[in-house]
Design a protein that fits this description.
The chain is an alpha+beta fold. 37% of the residues lie in helices and 26% in strands. The protein has 2 domains: 224 residues, PPM-type phosphatase domain (Phosphatase 2c, domain 1), CATH 3.60.40; 148 residues, 2-Layer Sandwich (Heat Shock Protein 90), CATH 3.30.565.
Amino acid sequence: MQEKSREKSLQEEKDAYASYQEELAFQKELNILRNDFYYKMIDSKEISLVDFFYQPLDTLSGDAYSARRINADKTFYFLVDGMGKGLSASLSAMAVTVFVNHLIDKMIEYENFSLDILIQESMDFMKPILLDEEALSVDYILFDNYSFELEYAKFAMPPFLLEDNANNVIKIKSNNPPMSKWSETYKIDNCSVKNIHKFLFYSDGIVENSTLEGVAYNSFIENDFIDSFTREEMKKHVLDKIATQEDDFTFIFINRLELNETTLISAKVFETSLDAVEEANSWYESICQNHCSGLAFNELFTNAYEHGNLGIDSEIKHQLLEQDKYFETLVSLEKECTKKITVKIYNIKTASAQYRVTQITDEGEGFDTNQLATIFRNSKKFNGRGVFVSRKNSMGIYYNSKGNSVLFLTKI
């Protein structure tokens, strides 16, 4: 009896250790994946929203991605899918992703980014690592958001899906074979995306997965892409149709918003005061008439007021509340503040629905939105609750590169 009890205890310890190591491995994977657009919009010549869906089948994923801001106008996207499943595929995918990110960091530091060099160097790096029969499917994608040019090298990845302004879907197929230890040459192509407003890049795990109807999801992806305005809608289409997940799921969804005088339905500038917070909420409610999230607006406008223009960070706010001096401090700071808060409301129509885009801009110093990762992983923490609540009560929130302007989406 004692021997069985001891064996059971040892097995429980082994299981706990294995679970702990799996959790560490997954956290390491998340550190390897790079996203320079975490709750950020691309605010170059036009505003674009970049979102990701990453759902590994196992703890160690054969898929990996990166999204990098090269400069004010250029953005780079990287997708890799290791051959097969398990540890070998994961090691290869993570190795090339680490190298690509390191090389991009250096190129950004020295302001000498080159897609050609990036592909050649990462290929040379991986060739001695890959096994004789192993191959990688890879996407290298470079956007110039000013000239609306796209450069790409696709190594046996599924086609890009692009939707133009006439709601036609354009497929861009691979222009290179899979990357292997025998690879020597590659091809880079380019195309104009001036008339494109929506993009979808994805690995084959999604399109090859069986659906509830018994056919591969590839039969549905184009129509679902057309019907999706956001990543959340695309994600819902995918998960509603598949039977059981059979492989890693990864996609990048980009939507270029038409925010101009044609789609603008109302705009107003507010003072930095508690009275203005109340005034703004009443004004917003009268404009939207239940078509927008009043809760998200209140939270984000209040953030613009206290964190943006008044410069009260979360730690100071917490201290002031504990000392019962919060409102007293607000009134004092308001008297010296001449900064404004600008609100713009847009209405965007698609073939199947309408969406409201609300943008709130303060005149403060902004903040690094990468801080939100910590907040969203622990929503019970005091700091950042307003942003968390806003995200939960809208279809997504996105800050500009400075962090002093935020927009959120709602579906009418």
